[in-house]
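TASK: fixed-backbone design
INPUT:
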């Protein structure tokens, strides 16, 4: 059964669609019916710029596990760059990057 649970947020960034790059301004995240995978439900993420029309959209459908892997990867990326995710969420200036890089992977 589809849930219709939606979370919206304003974002700053860029996305790439068939016609090239466009400015991102909004995103929506839902836990809802999956339309393009074999999962009954999943985490659906849409990045878009409503002002630029329907072609200015990047969408993904993820399993709940994959969505958590994405969250984890984002947090690790920020921490690795010396950015406190809590401060970033508040719009505070990011911390300086670490002076010593970790071992190559």
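OUTPUT:
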């Amino acid at each position: 059964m589809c849930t219709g649970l939606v979370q919206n947020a304003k974002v700053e960034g860029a996305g790439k669609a068939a016609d090239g790059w466009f400015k991102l301004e909004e995103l929506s995240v839902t836990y809802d019916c999956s339309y393009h995978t074999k999962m009954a439900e999943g985490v659906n993420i849409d990045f878009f710029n409503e002002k630029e029309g329907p072609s200015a959209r990047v969408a993904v459908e993820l399993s709940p596990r994959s969505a958590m892997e994405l969250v984890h990867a984002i947090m690790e990326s920020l921490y690795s760059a010396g950015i406190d995710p809590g401060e970033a969420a508040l719009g505070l200036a990011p911390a300086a990057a670490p002076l010593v890089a970790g071992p190559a992977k």
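COMMENT: The two ends are 42 Å apart (CA to CA).
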